[in-house]
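Supplementary material to the annual report.
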Amino acid sequence: VDEVRITNRKSAAITGSARKIKDNAADWHNMMLRWDRLNEDGFMAAASIVNMRRSCSERSAAAQQFFIASTLFLTTAPCVKTSCVTSFLVSRQAAVVTKMDRLMTSQRGVEDLEAFQFGAEGRKTPLFHSWSTREFGEISQVLLDSFRRELLLKQTILQEVAHTVTSDLCMVFLSGWLHQPFIPTQSRLRLEALLLETGHRPL
Amino acid sequence: MSTLAVATLHQALRKSFATLESNQKVWKSVLAECSPLMVSLGNLAEQSRALSNVQISNTPLRVFPDLEERLRFKLLEATDIVLGKLNEKMSSLQSARDAISNQVAAILHLYEQNTHSLDLLAVTERSTTTPSVADMLEWLQDAERHYRQQYPFLSSVLDVYVIFWYFFPLTLVFRFLRRKTLLQTLRADDLSLLESAPQRWNSLESPSAEDHITDTLCKVSFFVESQ
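Predicted assembly:
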C-alpha cells in the first residue's frame, strides 16, 4: 500500500518541465504508433494503385484499340478513387509530423526556460533518472528529422506512383513505402529509451 | 526364446512408430510454417533486384541521394529477420529427424542383438492386424532414410540463399569497381537464384514420400494400438 501511495505521490508531484517532458514522451509514442498504422494502410492503397495501374494499362490498350471510351473510363475510375485514399492517408501522416514538430517546439521551450532558470550549465539534478534536459531535445530532433524525410519520400512516391509504367520503379516505390528507409530501426530503441527515462516504462 | 524376442521387438516397434508419427506431425507443421517465410524471402529478393535495376538518379526519387543505400540496408535487415526465423525452423526439422534416426538405430540394434533367437518364421510371420517384423523394420528404415535425405536438401536451399544474399552487396561493390563482364553474369544468376528459392524449396518437399509414411502409419495402426 505504501509503495502505491509513494508512486502516486511521485507522479502527482511531477510538475513544470518534468511534467511537460513526460507528456511529450507519451505523445511521441502515440504519434509513432499512429504513423505506423497510417503507413500500413497507405502501403495497401499504394500497392493496389500499382496493381490497378498494371491491369489498367493492359485493358486501356485493348480499349483504345476498339475505341471504347466508356471502358477507358471504367478502368481509370477505381484508380482515381484509390489515389484519393492514398493522398488522404499521406495527408494524415503529414498531420502527424506537424504534431511532432509542435512537440519539438514545446521541448525547445522547456530548454529555453531551463537556460533562463539555471544559466548556461543547466540544472544540477536531472529531471528523471540520468538524462540532462538537452538530451530529450536531441532525441526528439533526431526522430523529427527522420519522420520529416520519410514524409517527403511518401509525398514524392504519391505524386509519381500512379504515373509510373516501369514495373521495377513501381517495386522500388512500394518497397520504399513499406520499409521506410529514412526511419532507422534504432528509432524504436530511441523511443523506448525516452519512455524508460521518463518513467512510462518500469525500469 | 523366439516368442520372447518377438514380444520385445514388438514393444520397441510400437514405440518407434509412435515416435515416427509424432515427429512426422512436427515435420509437416514446421514445413508448413516455412512456406510463407520462403515466400517473403522471394519477395525481398525481388525488391532487391528491382532496386538494382533502377537508376535512382534518373527517377523522381533523385532528391534522395542516400535512398538506395538506406533501402538496401532495410531489405538486408528484413531478410536477416526472416532467415533467423527459418534457421529456428531448420533446427526443429533437424531435431525431428534426429529423434526418428535415433529411434530407428536403437530398434535395429535391438534386432541385431536378438538375431540368434529369431528364426526366419518369427521375423516374417504376420497376421491380419500385425505386419511382420521384417516389413515393419523395413518401413521404419524407409521413413528414416526419407527424413535423413530430405533435411540436407532443404537446408542447402537456405545455405545457397544465405551465401548469395550476403555476397550480393559485395558484387555491387565489384560492379562499382567496373569489373563488369564477370559480375554482370554473376548478378543475373544469383538474383534469379534468390528469387527462385521458394519454388526450389517447394519442389524439394516430396508429398508422395510423406504420403507413403502416412500409409505405413495406417498399416501399423492396429498393431500400435494393440497391447
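Residues 12-197 of chain A form one domain.
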